Amino acid sequence: MAVDETRLNELVQRVFGDMGAVFSAALVVLGDHLGLYRALAGAGPLTPEELAQRANCAERYLREWLSAQAAAGFVNFDSATGRFSMSPEQAMVFAEEGSPAFMPGGFEIATAMFRGEPKIAEAFRSGRGVGWHEQDAVLFRGTERFFRPGYTANLVSSWLPALDGVVDKLKRGAKVADVGCGHGASTIVIARAFPNSKFYGFDYHLPSIERARELAREAGVADRVTFEKASAKDYPKLGYDLIAFFDCLHDMGDPVGAARYVREAIAPDGTWLLVEPFANDKFEQNLNPIGRIFYAASTMLCVPGSLAQEVGLGLGAQAGETRIRDVVTKAGFTRFRRAAETPFNLIFEVRP
User: Fold this and answer.
1) Phi and psi, residue 128, nearest 5°
2) Domain 104-351 adopts which CATH fold?
3) Mean pLDDT confidence for 96-109
4) Which of 81, 120, 112, 87 is nearest to 101 (CA)?
5) Helix H or strand E segment including 54
6) 88 vs 246: CA distance, rounded Å
7) CA-CA distance, 230 to 172, in Å (whole number)?
8) pTM reported for the whole predicted model
9) Residue 42: pLDDT band with limits 50, 70, 90
10) Which option is the CATH number for 5-94: 1.10.10.10, 3.60.20.10, 3.40.50.300, 1.10.455.10?
């Protein structure tokens, strides 16, 4: 077949752009870990020497790092003064941990994907799974930091109010289970907003539970938040007013079994809050930048994790509403609706 030179050049340019993004990812992780963004943000224009003093790093390394950041558009450079700076918007993305636009956690997830590649390559050959606990530890921290901004920005302000009667119950005092809680970011966000309620976070990964307990103490909510090691099919059945699954149902080997367990653990008038990555039902409608990220993560993390468990359904991070509804319906739930959405998440309300 004849090669179309124009199409070839266009593809090479796209790949070269992606290569630059991948190379930059390592520098974002480096800058985050060394506190370089935090040292630069809000400090005004700085020379590499001045940043070196603030960050306690070698000037020659910082000069090269700053140059790469400026080329990526992550920091600004003033050619008249030879100084670098960060705009408020850049600071929100790279320096402010509590910002709803904070992104370094996503780059840590990418780091974990690279580190896990040998295991995933073997899984491709064997067809076996790779458990969440078998992934590099940077994944657990990165996942917490990646999802926390979205929970902070949306959970209390829009997702919970979209559920029928749930906010009133939480204000009065409700019993809440957060299943697959990881480091407990979602649990802690709700607990801080509703001091009259009692919260239980469950995850099968013990190191994540231990970290969640630390974060609960730091946030001052340990008196009303309990974190325990448990899977999605063996946590205590306490008749919860609200059970929440945040971005985890598709990772489970037996999501139908997990949904059936919710029916047994929830109060008769309780609500199941089910949050999943945004996906359209038609595959071709997910061929976009968001789908690209989620399919990549699904290949390296979500599907391997599901295939490592019993049943091994392998829903994947782009399951979409129809497939999620099918899981819920097979479990015996009769009420299912999309309560809210963001560009990154679908938020479902499920009732017995």
Assistant:
1) -80, 170
2) Rossmann fold (3.40.50)
3) 95
4) 87
5) helix 48-55
6) 30
7) 27
8) 0.94
9) confident
10) 1.10.10.10
